[in-house]
């Protein structure tokens, strides 16, 4: 929409005095009334249960009956739990891969797309499609393609069971997630690149900069805020990684693709250790909060500015 | 075309094959019988059969699950648009004290892991008899999608000049009248984008559905597809046909309205 600046309406006379104060109070009441459905819903579904989690994390609770207060026992247990350590390591591996692979493919796709005119929209649409397809469908597609009896490997003459082998299960699921995600990043980076001031490129050309120099010194700094945001979200998503793992391997075989969120889900709904699950959930949130705080701190220091 | 651009196009085509090749293979397999899938797993079918589609439709009970998903989608879209529309109006057009904190809270909220509130929410929903209940699921979608929808709509509504609302207010219109008569007609492209995204999310969503819906007749297509796939984990023809039923509506809708999808998903925030 093109917002043409119309002359401002003169402010109503008298910013102070009882009338104005009453009007302001009225505006506040009306405004909060408009916000009320959103906030009440959030209180019911998100905020209320989140606060309850804090309490339950200090209890021995099956998830259904009464909860007994046990202090810090759940946290002590989590700290020494080998399964938790292993899951955290898997989260770290997941993060390293999920940050580099889709980002590299996304930057490559976006850069090439920004250089061409014909079929740009078509390629953009094709890259984006895996993102709009449901995780359950994408997972089924790749179970088929990774199958040792009817998949790509079979065609190439190997009977490697990518999802069934503890050595490859985590990497295979991560590959599928990277595959469904990189095109989305390509589209985001492309729109960020198209927002870079064209005169900067002209100036670089006048200075005799090569294509690669232009990319390094104009394009990348130009899309830096977008990249910083994506890195931040990747950290958070890596911690939350759940759906593809849950669907494709259930964390197995033998815990080889277990991450904190799948471990937590099993503790709550299969092992009936809801108190312990709450402690794990709260710990994940605290890690997220620390990451967000660091991000805010770095932003204040001007890291995001080009 | 220079040679450099030819190189660009080669890489772009390879990337495109990487992105949609697997989905095309599924489309091919849906038309093959299992003997052909075994001997010729990824290539185009040599003999077309519609048997997989017919069997998948009845075995997967797609008539029921698609109806459930449509109810869930409609309920999520309508509710989210109303809830987020009201909130976005307040956050953009009304001068509400404390609205900055609300915007910050909405941003922060979308970063929280669902694991934080999952267990107590399940407990609460069991007490309220909202598990195994489509409406119970829709409420959760309202709560989880509305923050994103609010931020997206707010950025749309901020583009509407304040003068319009000021003028209507001087004419004696109430806030609700302004929202309905002035802002809503101008903001409908924003609402369409939100509706598309919320419909996509609720059609694809499986985590809340698998945790909160256990009765097979109430399952949406996503969790029903998951159960179907597990039961037929070696019958790739049947699974492929079911996958086509599930992905065709969203892919077609996306191709028809891709600009709206992409602008919404890339501007508001990302999930």
UniProtKB/TrEMBL annotation, chain B:
Highest taxon of source: Bacteria
CDD domains: TM_PBP2
Lipoprotein found in the keyword field: no
UniProt keyword Hydrolase present: no
Signal peptide: none
One GO cellular component term: plasma membrane
Cited PANTHER family: ABC TRANSPORTER PERMEASE PROTEIN MG189-RELATED-RELATED (PTHR43744), SN-GLYCEROL-3-PHOSPHATE TRANSPORT SYSTEM PERMEASE PROTEIN UGPE (PTHR43744:SF8)
Name of this protein: Carbohydrate ABC transporter membrane protein 2 (CUT1 family)
């Amino acid at each position: 929409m093109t917002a043409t600046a119309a002359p401002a309406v003169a402010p109503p006379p008298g910013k102070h005095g009882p009338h104005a104060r009453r009007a302001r109070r009225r505006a506040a009441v009306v405004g909060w009334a408009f916000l009320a459905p959103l906030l009440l819903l959030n209180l019911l579904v998100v905020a209320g249960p989140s606060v309850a989690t804090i309490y339950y994390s200090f209890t021995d609770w099956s998830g259904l009956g009464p909860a007994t207060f046990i202090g810090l026992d759940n946290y002590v247990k989590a700290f020494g739990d080998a399964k938790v350590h292993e899951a955290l390591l898997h989260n770290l591996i997941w993060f390293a891969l999920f940050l580099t692979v889709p980002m590299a493919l996304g930057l490559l796709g976006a850069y090439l797309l920004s250089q061409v005119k014909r079929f740009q929209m078509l390629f953009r649409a094709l890259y984006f499609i895996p993102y709009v397809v449901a995780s359950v469908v994408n997972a089924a597609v790749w179970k088929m393609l990774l199958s040792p009896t009817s998949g790509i490997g079979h065609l190439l003459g190997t009977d490697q069971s990518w999802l069934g082998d503890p050595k490859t299960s985590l990497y295979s699921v991560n590959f599928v997630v990277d595959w469904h995600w990189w095109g989305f990043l390509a589209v985001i980076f492309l729109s960020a690149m198209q927002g870079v001031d064209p005169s900067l490129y002209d100036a670089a050309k006048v200075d005799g900069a090569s294509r690669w120099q232009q990319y390094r010194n104009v394009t990348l700094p130009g899309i830096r805020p977008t990249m910083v945001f994506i890195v931040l979200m990747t950290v958070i998503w890596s911690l939350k990684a759940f759906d593809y793992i849950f669907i494709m391997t259930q964390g197995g075989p033998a815990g080889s693709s277990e991450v904190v969120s799948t471990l937590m889900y099993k503790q709550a709904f299969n092992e009936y250790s809801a108190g312990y699950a709450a402690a794990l959930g709260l710990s994940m949130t605290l890690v997220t909060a620390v990451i967000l705080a660091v991000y805010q701190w770095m932003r204040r220091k001007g890291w995001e500015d080009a | 075309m220079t040679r450099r651009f030819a190189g660009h196009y080669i890489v772009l085509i390879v990337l495109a094959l990487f992105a949609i090749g697997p989905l095309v293979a599924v489309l091919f397999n849906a038309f093959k019988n299992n003997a052909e899938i075994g001997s010729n797993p990824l290539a185009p079918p040599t003999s077309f059969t519609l048997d997989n589609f017919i069997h998948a439709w009845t075995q997967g009970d797609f008539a029921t699950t698609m109806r459930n998903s449509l109810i869930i989608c409609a309920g999520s879209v309508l509710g989210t648009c109303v809830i987020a529309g009201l909130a976005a109006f307040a956050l953009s057009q009304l001068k509400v004290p404390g609205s900055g904190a609300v915007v910050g809270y909405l941003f922060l909220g979308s970063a929280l892991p669902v694991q934080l509130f999952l267990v107590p929410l399940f407990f609460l929903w069991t007490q309220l008899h909202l598990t195994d209940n489509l409406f119970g699921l829709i409420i959760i979608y309202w709560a989880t999608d509305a923050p994103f929808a609010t931020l997206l709509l707010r950025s749309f509504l901020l583009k509407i000049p304040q003068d319009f609302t000021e003028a209507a207010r001087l004419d004696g219109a109430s806030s609700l009248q302004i929202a309905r008569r002035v802002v809503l007609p101008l903001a409908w492209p924003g609402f369409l984008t939100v509706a598309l995204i919320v419909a996509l999310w609720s059609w694809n969503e499986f985590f809340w559905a698998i945790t909160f819906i256990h009765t097979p007749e109430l399952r949406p297509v996503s969790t029903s597809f998951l159960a179907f796939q597990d039961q037929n984990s070696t019958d790739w023809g049947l699974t492929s046909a079911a996958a086509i039923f599930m992905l065709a509506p969203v892919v077609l809708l996306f191709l028809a309205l891709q600009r709206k999808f992409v602008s919404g998903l890339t501007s508001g925030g990302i999930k």
